[in-house]
Amino acid sequence: DAGVTQSPTHLIKTRGQQVTLRCSPKSGHDTVSWYQQALGQGPQFIFQYYEEEERQRGNFPDRFSGHQFPNYSSELNVNALLLGDSALYLCASSWGGQSGANVLTFGAGSRLTVL
Amino acid sequence: GEDVEQSLFLSVREGDSSVINCTYTDSSSTYLYWYKQEPGAGLQLLTYIFSNMDMKQDQRLTVLLNKKDKHLSLRIADTQTGDSAIYFCAEAWRALTFGSGTRLQVQP
Hints:
By secondary structure, chain A is an all-beta fold. Helices cover about 0% and strands about 50% of the residues of chain A. In chain A, a hairpin with a 5-residue loop joins strand 7 (about 65-70) and strand 8 (about 75-80). Chain B is globular. The model of chain B has no long low-confidence stretch (mean pLDDT about 90). The interface of A and B includes residues 4, 41, 56, 100 and 109 of A.
């Protein structure tokens, strides 16, 4: 059973460009969350998608947008890249119907470098 | 606001116990979590505790929660070199809020 898969694993962009990162959730999961992890820091919540809609959002500017498709996969888009957007972007999936603990399964991440 | 703090680094010898500490601020957190991150990998959930519990034990892992002081700890018994990693505590009322992580180094 494949877990959460993310692509690409590494990419390099220049300031002002746009980037799209992709995530396929674990089988049976319908909710996708995105996190940004800067070097030496803990992950920070960007947003969460459920039923193809953004359900929650963290403290990130509108340059960060996302999408969820009918097959539950998701994309994270970042426009007008800044040097400070360089980070590991983590996707996590879960089942929206779970009660109790918010158990997330994380992918290995996409490492974005902005030059 | 939400804030989770951890010490940055812990070094122990193989076979000793490790204790990683965490403080949090959001009293509305219903669950608190411990995650492990190895180099080049995503986060792996180790364990979690419901906020009305004081302690949870899971094999070599023991989680202690002091809700009054908003203090959470993770004890790893018989620490092995394979336990070397970064450990994150996280609180959640809605989305997870992570600390900055504690790097655990296990010396043979």
